[in-house]
Amino acid sequence: MIEIIDLHKSFNGQKVLNGVNLKIAEKEIVTIMGISGCGKSVLIKHIIGLLMPDKGRILIEGVDITKLETKELDKIREKLGVLFQGGALFDSLTVYGNIAFPLREKTKLSREEVRDRVMHALEDVGLKGMERKYPGELSGGMKKRVAVARALISEPAIVLFDEPTTGLDPIIASSIHVLIKSTHKKYGYTGVVISHEVPKIFEITDKVAMLHNGIIIEVGTPEEIQNSTNPIVRQFITGSHEGPIEY
Amino acid sequence: MERLLIAIGLWTISRLRRMGHMFVFLLNSFYFIFIPPFKFRLLLRQIRFFGNKSMLVILLTGSFTGMVLALQLFYILRKFGSEALLGPGIALSLIRELGPVLSALMVTGRAGSALTAEVGMMRISEQIDALTAMALNPIRYLIVPNIVAAIIVFPLLVAIFNVIGIFGGYLVGVEILGVSSGTYFSLMEDYVTMEDIMVGIYKSLSFGLIVSWICCYKGFYTGYGAEGVSKSTTEAVVLCSILILIWDYFLGAILL
Fold first, then answer.
1. pLDDT tens digits for A11-37?
2. CA of B227: how far to CAs of A37, A84, B118, in Å?
3. DSSP code, position B135
4. Phi and psi dihedrals of A180, rounded to 5?
5. B136, A91: Cβ pair inside 8 Å?
6. Which residues in chain B are contacts of A101 at CB distance < 8 A?
């Protein structure tokens, strides 16, 4: 479904991605974890086509998106749903307007059909009755839930979650994890989750990839990663300040 | 010496590159003005944004500009015994020059800076990336409505500025300084031609384009965090003000 091949990216001479290789199978949830600033968000922005690599390829359903013109890239983007780190909700629109936005702009659904789908999505994310609120009136957890609803409203084949629980308390973070799991079960999308919420993230993911120093150093099931002997992976999972990862 | 030349060369290249980038941004925006789907609701919202934000400041500056002009022109004209020309003097100064320039500077400070900050905040909060990720063109959604709205609103704001300025001048010239009311308006009709009004309209249209273009560009390509937005906003206001004055001279010279 998604294949990242030898991906390189530098900013002002500083290498961020240094040959990332990763395969994500259809309907699988893969979590990419790594320390803050290791390039996880940069990687996800390459998958969306917001950044272009210095070298390497990204195949989505077999199509190399790094070679595409904007129009063709937009066709690929229509298959994506993205939850941005801060939610990226439109301040000028209500909760309803935010969730309905992709449907209004990209489909020819009638007003009633849009309404039905938005109300259904709000129910899915547990925000029934909040449709008239503006993003500024919502808590961090609620904003993330609205962003999840917006990302899923078009029923995309691939959903990218960029740090869905950052800045949230453990209970709200758990509820977001449950939400990802339940919506995955319902819609059957391929999911890419950027997170450093270990070990909680292991409960919802099929595979985990560890990004470190610009490369994927280990990929495996949550059990394999938890039993990994790689000292970098071990230090990250245990959260120890002593080990090969330097700050 | 060689190092100095290299530094000057690099600086020049970077400035030229930035200018090229700005022009490509403008051309890209122009392209989407004529390509459907058109975003009329967003256009109306931005017309309201420019008008609503700027109206009070336009009314205040317009009235006081007219009043000051009346005072100063009356003082000068009295030396030549031509006080009767106060009305056309004020009208021509406002319509050809002060109305478009001062309105543009005021709108830049009020709505232009708010526009840069708004677009900049959308950039740093990833709202622009969200539009792109939804396969929606952010230029069409954010920039085009602002440019079209500014081109529509600027001439209207300038017209209001001029009318208020002329009445401000009337208040001081006729009511305080004793110029005849009939002379004030009738000579204005004789001296102000359609050509003068068109000069003001051309200027206001081009200033609308300059302000919306620069303010949108600076917001769209803002730096990181609140500091980046603050810096972009300052840069936008300074650059707009400079370009308004420079363009005013060149357009004035061409249309004279």
1. 999 999 999 999 999 999 999 999 888
2. 20, 21, 14
3. T
4. -65, -45
5. no
6. 134
What are A103's two structure tokens? 């449907």
Q: Give tens-digit pLDDT for B65-76.
A: 999 999 999 999
Q: Do A82 and B133 touch (CB under 8 A)?
A: yes
Handedness of CA B222, B223, B225, B228 (dihedral sign): negative
**B246: helix, coil or strand?**
helix
Q: Which two tokens stand for residue A226?
A: 């938890």
**Closest to A43 measured CA to CA, from A157, A197, A163, A180:** A163
Instruction: Note whether A148 and A164 are within 8 A (CB).
Output: yes
Contact A74 B135 (CB under 8 A): yes
Counting every residue, how long is chain B? 256
Q: How far apart are CA A55 and CA B256, in angstroms?
A: 56
The predicted-structure confidence for B125-177, as pLDDT tens digits, reads as follows: 999 999 999 999 999 999 999 999 999 999 999 999 999 999 999 999 999 99
Q: How far apart are CA A192 and CA B90, in angstroms?
A: 66
- HSE toward the beta carbon, residue B115, CA cutoff 13 A: 37
Give backbone dihedrals phi and psi of A179, rounded to 5 degrees, phi first.
-60, -45
C-alpha A132/C-alpha A185 separation (Å) is 28
Q: Rounded to an integer, what distance in angstroms lies between the CA atom of residue A7 and that of residue A17? A: 6
Q: Chain B: nearest CA to A102, how far in angstroms? A: 7
Residue A239 forms beta bridges with which residues?
none
Q: Where are the domains of chain A?
A: 89-155
Q: What is the DSSP letter of A136?
A: G
- Tell me the β-bridge partners of B146: none
Question: Can you give the pTM of this predicted structure?
Answer: 0.90
DSSP secondary structure of A43-68:
HHHHHHTSS--SEEEEEETTEEGGG-
Tokens matching residue A39: 């390039």
Q: Mapping DSSP to helix (H, G, I), strand (E, B) and coil, where does residue A227 land?
A: coil
Look at B126 and A90 and tell me if their CB atoms are within 8 Å: no
Q: Are A115 and B156 in contact (CB under 8 A)?
A: no
Which strands sit side by side in the sheet containing A190-194, from one edge to the other? Answer: A80-83, A158-162, A190-194, A29-33, A207-212, A215-220
State ipTM. Answer: 0.92
3-state secondary structure string across A157-218:
CEEEEECCCCCCCHHHHHHHHHHHHHHHHHHCCEEEEECCCCCHHHHCCCEEEEEECCEEEE
Calpha distance A230→B17 (Å, rounded): 47
CB B244 within 8 Å of CB B108: yes
Contacts of A80 in chain B (CB under 8 A): 133
Q: Which residues of B touch A99 (CB under 8 A)?
A: none
Task: Evaluate whether A3 touches A59 at the Cβ level (below 8 Å).
Answer: yes
